[in-house]
Amino acid sequence: MKHVPVLLDEVVAALAPVAEGVYLDGTFGGGGYARRILESGCTLYAIDRDPAAIARGAELLREFPGRLHLLQGSFGDMVNLLAAENITSLAGIVLDLGVSSFQLDDPARGFSFRLDGPLDMRMSMQGPTAADLVNHLPEQELADILYEFGEERASRRIAKAIVARRAEAPFTTTVELARVIRSVLPLDRSGIDPATRSFQALRIKVNDEMGEIERALEAAASLLAPGGRLVVVSFHSGEDRIVKQFMTRVSGRAPAPSRHDPSGLLRRAVPRFRLLGDRLVRPGESEIAANARARSSRLRAIERLGESLV
């Protein structure tokens, strides 16, 4: 099992780590970004809510003694996690919002509809599971989750089928759920499995991923020193929408309010950041060919205004 980091060269180029800097990898995962960042000679703190990811970091800890520090927790809580390490300012932060290959490829974690395993999907191994949601949520609430987080147009039909099936026996495995979803949806001409969007939606809900992103972006902005950079790789349109809106707002690029809106009379806040690059960064054809999971990835980055302290 191997995790292939997406847009690796582009992420490191945008972050531009230097030996004197202190950086944060908010989503350690398989350590792909962390290794390249550490090769610059810098100090790196790395967060992951998955205890298995922290355990996998033992090899990197030995390889970069004294310069890598692993912290278990949610990146949305980065301010408190770093404060416990007496870190209150950073030269750069990177966030990879995708689920890791280690999680997808481990049947016991229940993230994938391609592998039979318990219907779990919890990154932190704590709290309600995906099985809890599909077995107990009201039909309408379940449909709303599939539509909002999976952009599943057949959400009501799927939710109805799930509720009918759970009346006979509760869902316990990924294969059981995927089978029900496929039974009510036609095959997609693109070749995408009909269960893809529903599994994505449940994973996002189970882990409160959208809420975590919002908290992490605000926290990152408060931690970056002048000249510090925030680099974010997203995979889902909902994720990217949150990132884009945040970066547009803090860089002063948000559109002016309507002339009929009283808030337009207020003085606009001085931008704290600037956007890096003129457009969204996407993977090239060669990367997509080598790693199909890179296909939906996109990178956005901002830099804190002011003279760099590094």
What does this structure look like?
It is a single chain. The chain has helices spanning 8-15, 32-38, 51-56, 58-63, 78-83, 101-104, 130-136, 139-150, 155-166, 174-184, 196-206, 209-223, 237-250, 285-290, and strands at residues 22-25, 43-48, 68-72, 90-96, 224-234, 273-275, 298-304. The longest helix has 15 residues, at 209-223. The chain folds into two domains: 8-102 and 209-304, Vaccinia Virus protein VP39 (Rossmann fold, 3-Layer(aba) Sandwich), CATH 3.40.50.150; 125-206, DNA polymerase, domain 1 (Orthogonal Bundle), CATH 1.10.150.170. A seven-stranded mixed beta sheet has the order 3-2-1-4-5-7-6, sandwiched between helices. It is built from 14 helices and seven strands. The model has no long low-confidence stretch (mean pLDDT 91). With 310 residues, it is α/β, with parallel strands linked by helices. Helix 8 (139-150) crosses helix 9 (155-166), helix 8 crosses helix 11 (196-206) and helix 12 runs parallel beside helix 13. The chain is globular, with a radius of gyration of 21 Å. Helix 2 (32-38) links the parallel strand 1 and strand 2.
